[in-house]
Design a protein that fits this description.
The structure is a homodimer of 79-residue chains.
Chain A: E1 2-9, H1 16-27, E2 33-46, H2 51-66, E3 72-78
Antiparallel strand pairs in A: 1-2, 1-3
Chain lengths: 79, 79
């Protein structure tokens, strides 16, 4: 089965990449963009077929490798 | 309104970051991960309130800045 992990910086954490995108969009003439945050998305193909076990495994992967939980939050979706 | 753009490398394009994650997960003892692809997610706060116009604007942003459409595909969701 497939899992999709979305990792975003937590809301209080400065996101210079997002700010750079916001400025670049303004320079290109796209008005009305009031905020931009950039994060990562990681799509995993898993051999596991049980949804509950797959989610537990993916959450463990997030805690140990995929996200820095001090500054990032993550969301797991099974697809 | 908010829009979420997901940018992924197209399926034929080599994804070294995804491969690195797959190897690292294997080294940490997570078996059964058969494939990993990494992409970007960009969350935009828009002043626009009409969903159709917002989607048109965000697609234009993707074509001009957010995605390299030669090697990347993008998906727009309004949230």
């Amino acid at each position: 089965m497939k899992a999709r992990v979305t990792v975003m910086l937590k809301s209080g954490v400065l996101d210079p990449q997002g700010e750079a995108i916001r400025h670049a969009l303004g320079s290109l003439g796209f008005a009305g963009v009031t905020g931009v945050r950039q994060g990562k998305v990681i799509e995993l193909d898993l051999a596991e077929t049980d949804p509950a076990q797959a989610e537990t495994a993916v959450r463990a992967m997030c805690e140990r490798l995929l996200a820095n939980t001090v500054i990032e939050s993550y969301r797991v979706e099974l697809v």
